[in-house]
Amino acid sequence: MSDRGAVISIGTNSTRLLVVDFSAKRFGVFGDPITRILKQRSTGTRIGEGLKEKGHLIDEAMNRTLEVVREYCEALDSHTPAVNVIATSALRRADNADEFVDRVREVTNTDVHILDGSDEAKASFRGAITSFDDTEELCAGVLDVGGGSTEYAVGNHEHASHTASCEVGAVRLTEWFPSLAGREGFVDNASIDAAREKTIDLLEPILALPKAEALAIVGGSATTTLAVVRGHPVRFGDTELTREKLRNAFDLLCELPLAKRRTVPGMNPQRADILPAGMLILDTAIALLGHDRATVSYSDLLLGYLLLEREKMTVSR
């Protein structure tokens, strides 16, 4: 079995690459080798653009996403095994997903695994659980706010025992409530209240899961929110995010037009239009789950997927 793993993830907002080396002499909380990141890239390709209105992926979005996928494949060296390709909410919903999958296969020479909501939640949980230092008896929850959907999983040890997938994400919520994007200036309270009410309704599935003692949040909305709160990107050290600081950052962004949002310290400019929606989903979900803070984890869906695939290969040998 190769000590390396590689995955390209095509999300509603971003296309990402992760290449890791699993070989290590140290091991994590659950016996996982401490992985070394060899390559990590993220590009805002927004494959889900226009999906709400048209029901299918538009040519411009497919072309720019394919170009990034091609660049990622060219960046892999001869020591990297065949790359895994996964996709999430946008391809689950698009009526022309098969056409796009065929085009991706031509570039990557591999099939695209379109994850259902439950599998996406399990993979995010598997990746994020490596951030917890507590014992395996800890009941942990992992919340993944993406561009097209929000996944939540609860479990003990390294595997999720309960999952939920909700049809709300930062891109979709912004499409439903365009003023959140800031293109017309500050966001009015009526739009915020309406967006929050819709979010509460759509997040109802997470309330059926068992209560978690600790909560981790993953995904671009979570990591960019932490960066804005800190005023710079954060990759290590204290990654706790309180609801109070999250809401303060949300209020700040809602008062700024889009152009000024892009200049806020810590902001990823490509996310400036959808970040308030992502923040609103995060804040609402954290509150519904009965927490006032969460750990932001940079180990997420991509690492989790590679770990789960590695476990399958080990079992099959």
Write the layout of secondary structure elements.
Blueprint: E1 4-10, E2 14-21, E3 36-44, H1 51-54, H2 59-75, E4 84-87, H3 89-93, H4 97-108, E5 112-114, H5 117-128, E6 140-145, E7 150-155, E8 162-166, H6 170-176, H7 189-202, E9 214-218, H8 220-230, E10 240-242, H9 243-254, H10 258-261, H11 275-288, E11 293-296, H12 301-316
Parallel strand pairs: 1-4, 4-5, 6-9, 9-11
Antiparallel strand pairs: 1-2, 2-3, 6-7, 7-8, 10-11
Helix pairs in contact: 2-4, 5-12, 6-11, 7-11, 8-9, 8-11, 9-11
Give a description of the structure.
- There is one protein chain.
- The protein is α/β, with parallel strands linked by helices.
- The protein has 2 domains: 4-114, 2-Layer Sandwich (Nucleotidyltransferase, domain 5); 132-296, Nucleotidyltransferase, domain 5 (2-Layer Sandwich).
- It has 12 helices and 11 strands.
- The protein has a 6-stranded mixed beta sheet with strand order 8-7-6-9-11-10, with helices on both faces.
- Helix 5 (117-128) packs across helix 12, helix 6 (170-176) packs across helix 11 and helix 8 (220-230) crosses helix 11.
- The N and C termini lie close together (9 Å).
- Mean pLDDT is 91; it is low at 25-31.
Features:
alpha/beta, Nucleotidyltransferase, domain 5, about 20% strand, globular, 5-stranded mixed beta sheet
